[in-house]
Design brief:
Helix content: under 10%
Order of helices and strands: EEEEEEEE
Number of strands: 8
Number of domains: 2
Structural class: mainly beta
Radius of gyration: 15 Å
Distance between the termini: 23 Å
């Protein structure tokens, strides 16, 4: 599950969760975990892993993913470059001791 916040006043969703709504300024948006499903809207591939734990020597990607239930999130991509409009799931993965959102494309 990917943590997101959802404003009770205007419905704006954000990830990572925030203390105030960026759209209307309301305080204490509620927590609303996302299943992480979404589609890639833009991506790039960085060849070579530069020693990044959990990623192979082929490299890693960085992408913007529109989640089905709300916000657009920036994520790492493992395995290979995602195609345009690729669908998949974003989940939190521990990379070098830090929880980072990582996109896993659906199998074709």
């Amino acid at each position: 599950m990917l943590p997101i916040s959802r404003c009770p006043a205007c419905g704006e969703a954000a990830s990572p969760p925030r203390d105030h709504c960026a759209r209307c300024g309301a305080e204490s948006p509620g927590s609303d975990p996302s299943d992480g499903r979404g589609r890639v809207v833009a991506s790039t591939w960085v060849p070579g892993a530069f020693g990044l734990e959990g990623f192979g020597p082929a490299g890693f990607g960085v992408a913007w993913v529109d989640l089905d239930d709300g916000p657009r999130v920036q994520v790492l991509v493992a395995g290979g470059p995602p195609g345009p409009d690729a669908r998949g799931t974003v989940d939190l993965v521990v990379v070098e001791g830090v929880d980072l959102p990582v996109f896993a494309p659906e199998a074709s």
